[in-house]
Amino acid sequence: MTRIVAALTTVALATAALTACAPASGVQGGRSAASPTPAPTPTPVPTELRPGTNHSYAADAYAHSAAEVHAWLVDGDRAPHYPEQRVAFLTFDDGPSSTTTPKDLDILKAEGVPATFFYITGDKALAKVDPAVPRRAMAEGHAVCVHSRSHNYHELYPGRRADAEHIVADHDRAIADLRGVFGDGYAAGCYRYPGGHMSWRGMAPADAALADRGVHWIDWNTMTGDAEPAQRAPHTAGQAARMVPAGLAAAGDPRVAVVLMHDAEGMTLSTDALRTVIHDLRDKGYTFGVIA
Description:
It is a single chain. Helices cover 35% and strands 12% of the residues. The protein is of the alpha/beta class. Helix 3 (100-111) packs parallel to helix 9 (269-283) and helix 8 crosses helix 9 (269-283). The strands form three sheets. Strands 2, 3, 4, 7, 8 and 9 form a six-stranded parallel β-sheet that branches. It is built from nine helices and ten strands. The chain has one domain: Glycoside hydrolase/deacetylase (TIM Barrel, Alpha-Beta Barrel). The chain has helices at 11-21, 66-75, 100-111, 132-139, 153-156, 164-182, 204-212, 237-250, 269-283; strands at residues 63-64, 87-95, 116-119, 143-146, 190-191, 216-217, 222-223, 256-262, 287-288, 290-291. The longest helix has 19 residues, at 164-182.
């Protein structure tokens, strides 16, 4: 049965782990406090990156592989290991940003809920943000995936057709950027095409090239609509929040919800709607996971 954990482990666990590793003071076993005490064997701090993944040790409990989530989205309950209980994946595209992302992290922390951040790693986002922002996301139990380095539609999809060579090269540069932030142990099996997989033609070669790297694309089955065209975009946080259950209803009320939101600079609609989105999903029986 698919592992589902409702609560998010926060930085407090790291403090507890470090405290547990610290030598005790005072008299122990007949020794004075001045006597040398053997250092305990270090244990992994839960908030550090687990090497070979895109998340911390703490997030192991509620991380689901991108291959699995991809199959759940594409094949629904026909997919292997489709969860018996409802699980939601809150996903944020186009970040990180210096203003919006920290506000989202504050809300997620207060609600005890993890999310998956799909980063643009070039000059549009990661390259101009204090590394403390993405490192905070990792430390607080979230996952970080790739949303390209350039987010350049003309380069990635000339003539609206996927260019596999450009997409893979761009992806590899993005991975290198993220290793510059999180260390050489960073790796991710999740990728979100700029604009979404459904928006472009000739995707099969790019899909196959990414799959050769163990990477699977992730779209979504509901959204807050914060990046929709003006004629479809919500105007208030309440309208944005209501789009999420409406999208799930249109998708046949699936047990797996992948919610598209954005945390780019200046995009505050999903931030304003986030608490309501979380509460509505909880009311429907969803717990929360991250995508690895």
